[in-house]
Amino acid sequence: MSELNLHHIKKVYPNGFEAVQDFNLDIKDGEFVIFVGPSGCGKSTTLRMVAGLEDISDGDLYIDGKRVNDLDPKDRDIAMVFQSYALYPHMTVRENMEFPLKIAKLPKEEIDSRVAEAAKTLGLESLLDRKPKALSGGQRQRVAMGRAIVRHPKVLLMDEPLSNLDAKLRGQMRVEISKLHEKLGSTIIYVTHDQTEAMTLGDRIVVMSDGEVQQIDTPSNLYQYPVNRFVAGFIGSPQMNFMDVVIKEAGDKVYLTIGDDDILISDEKAAKLKAKGYKNGQSVVLGIRPEDLSDHPEMLAKFPESTAKGKVEVYEMLGSTSNLYVDCNGTQVTAAVDPSTKARVGDVVTLAFNNNNIQIFDKDSNKNILVDLDPNTGTILK
Ligand code: ATP
User: Fold this and answer.
1) d(CA 138, ligand 1 centre) in Å
2) Distance CA 370, CA 6 (A)
3) Could you give the CA distance from residue 293 to residue 351 in angstroms, rounded to a whole number?
């Protein structure tokens, strides 16, 4: 168990490519932190710098208050689990898990007890004498985790550990990893490109794009208060809808206009828009999550002045919800609606916008106009 501090960490590869720019993060003891972002955003590079597998070009990395920039990977007390499980094929499960402890020259009784403990934690007791080729993908992944946890590392690093598994197994292993974290209480950094894994596993999530940290916060804050269009689009599934709209002031009320439709926004959001200098006639981008659009009579009655019409182009029945893909004044929007909907392809539907959950982005900077961060802590000012 351990604390980690990344201060102004930067990575420039020898070819001059800046893979990570000014990464700042303080990780608490026992925290489960996720690095998430699209391929090439620099998340693995950052993790590898923490592990010591990649040099840190600039900045300081501390583990439990000690600067470890120049410490060898083996001296950092960190264990890493990779996407390719990297098990030794000629060794049994037991031998694979014993291996790092034998290298560390631990006494035999200690090795036996740690392997037995890890095997119990991970449900591997009946598989200890098998070779990796006689295991399923999920079992192999558990052995790879076992090999990491027997070392009782201060920090556990995981780089896309589930991406070789099929969707169902990924779901199961996600739950296993959550339970493992609960049991071990270790500090974990977990890299993934999958927003569902990030949302379900992380205490806090670091969203990255093009080598830059976009936002660091809890899953629920990222979902409710995305700081910019990138985070808003990356977190949440199906993705948030974005519509080009124009601000329309009418008396005390403020609407966002899309073609012939006006969407009333709440007084609080209108006050923020005005306070930041946005004016009647100005173009902005409206963000609305599919689950905040509805054709249900109750929602239409609740938000009568926040509706837009559109033609249903695709209808998907998913069981607990139905997705409507609707052409709304030339923009395709996705509405995740109640499955009782009568709307089908070709119909014109009226969608109510839950105006409590509307986001508004600046057209040029892509920043969320409604969200402010504390300049010192980077946390949301609610
Ligand atoms: P993925 O999910 O695809 O692994 P990632 O977010 O983990 O993506 P990194 O592996 O950290 O991305 O790579 C970040 C960027 O650095 C990428 O654009 C990559 O091409 C570049 N990069 C990685 N290794 C090197 C290297 N040795 N030399 C130059 N550029 C590199």
Assistant:
1) 26
2) 29
3) 6
- Residue 38 beta carbon below 6 angstroms from any ligand 1 atom: no
Burial readout 349-368 (b: 16 or more C-beta within 10 A, e: otherwise): bebbbbbebbbbbbeeebeb
Task: Tell whether ligand 1 has an atom less than 6 A from the beta carbon of residue 16.
Answer: no
Q: How far is the CA of 45 from the centre of ligand 1 (A)?
A: 6
Q: How far is the CA of 286 from the centre of ligand 1 (A)?
A: 33
Q: Which atom of ligand 1 sits closest to the CA of residue 46?
A: 11
Ligand 1 centroid–CA 132 distance in Å is: 29
The predicted-structure confidence for 341-356, as pLDDT tens digits, reads as follows 999 999 999 999 999 9
Q: Which helix (H) or strand (E) holds 270?
A: helix 267-275
Q: Of ligand 1's atoms, which has the minimum distance to the CA of residue 45? A: 11
Residue written as tokens 């740690």?
A: 114
pTM over 0.90: yes
Distance CA 329, CA 195 (A): 29
Residue 323 CA to residue 328 CA, distance in Å, equals: 15
Render pLDDT for 41-88 as a digit per residue (tens, 0 to 9): 999 999 999 999 999 999 999 999 999 999 998 888 899 988 877 899
